[in-house]
Amino acid sequence: MTSSLQAALDPSAIAVIGASENPDKIGGRPLLYLSMFGFRGEVWPVNPKRDEVQGRRTVPRLSALSRAPDLAIIAVPGEAAVAALDECGEVGVKVAIMMASGFGETADPAAQAAERAMVARARARGVRMIGPNSQGLANFGTGAVPSFSSMFLEVPPQDGPVGIVSQSGAMSVVPYGLLRGRGIGVRHTHATGNDADVTVCELAAAVAADPALKLLLLYLESIPDPHHLAEAAAIARDRGLPIVALKSGRTAAGQAAAQSHTGALANEDRLVDAFLERHGIWRADDTTDLVAAAELYLKGWRPGGRRMVAISNSGATCVMAADAASAAGLDLTP
C-alpha cells in the first residue's frame, strides 16, 4: 500500500474544511462520525466563521494548523472546493476527499477541464485526491469515518471481515446495510466518486492488503486502470482473499447512465468478463447476488477440483444444475 493511501485509510489527523455545527450537513456529519465511532487521531475543524464546531475549536484555514493533517475532507462546493484542494497542496496534506460534485460527471466541458486541472495541480504538490463527487470513506477498524452517508446512523456498524470499495456512494452503503441485516460485520466501505485521481481499482488494491479482511466486494462502473485491479487481484490471491465484483454498464443505456453518474467511461462487456475471469474475480449479476455470495465465501470453503454433484428431490433442478455446470466448464457427476 502506498503511504498516501495508508493516510486515507488510517490517518493520524483529519481536517474538515467547511466544518458545520449541524450533523445533518455534509460538513457536519463526518465530525459526528469521527466522535461517534471512536477515531483516536486528531480532528481539526476548519471554519473561518465560527470559533467552535460540535465542541471542537476551529481554525480559519489549514495554514493556521501547527502541522499538516494526513487527510483533509473538503466539504465546501464549487470554486471554494477547488481553492481548498490547492491549499491542501500548499500545506502538505497527503490525501483529500472532495465531496463536491459538478465536475467530470457533468456534460460541461469546462467542468471536466476544471477537474483535470485541479487534479494536475494537486498531484504536482504531492496530494492524492479521492473524488470529486465522493460520499467519503469508512474504516470501522480504526474509527476513521470521513463520510456523510446517513446509512451509518440507520444501520449501526460492526467491524468485521468484509471490505466494500465502490465508485458509487449508494453502492458503497446499500451492500453494507444488507450485510449488517444478515449479521455480518463490515470493516471498510469506501466511495471514490469520479475517480479523477485515486480510482476504485487503486483503492481496492490498498484495501486488499488489510490482513483482517476475508472478503472484498467491488462495485465498478468502469475499469479505467486495469493494472490496479490486476494488482488488487494479485494481492488478494497471495493471501487467499476472494474478490466479488458487480460491474454495471453492460448495455449502451447503462453505460450512458454511468457517464452521467460518476463520469465513468464504458468498457466492452465481453472484455470485462474475460479480464475478471483471468484474474480470479467472480462477477456478480446484481446487488442481491453480490450480498448473497458473502455468506458462502465467508465460510472459507475451497473446491478441490472441477467435479461436482447435484443433490435434489427435483429432477428439474438437477437439469438446471447440469446446464449451469456445463456453462461454467464443470464436470457434473451423473
From TrEMBL:
Give GO terms for biological process. tricarboxylic acid cycle
Instruction: Name the Gene3D superfamilies on file.
Output: NAD(P)-binding Rossmann-like Domain (3.40.50.720), Succinyl-CoA synthetase domains (3.40.50.261)
The alphabetized UniProt keywords are:
Tricarboxylic acid cycle
- Per UniProt, residues of the CoA-binding domain are 8-103
SMART domains (UniProt xref)? CoA_binding
Q: Does the keyword Transit peptide apply?
A: no
Matching Pfam families, A to Z? CoA_binding_2, Succ_CoA_lig
Report which superkingdom the organism of origin falls in: Bacteria
Q: What InterPro entries does the record tag this protein with?
A: CoA-bd, NAD(P)-bd_dom_sf, Succ_CoA_lig_flav_dom, Succinyl-CoA_synth-like
Which PANTHER family does the entry mention? BLL6376 PROTEIN (PTHR42793:SF4), COA BINDING DOMAIN CONTAINING PROTEIN (PTHR42793)
Q: What is this protein called?
A: CoA-binding protein
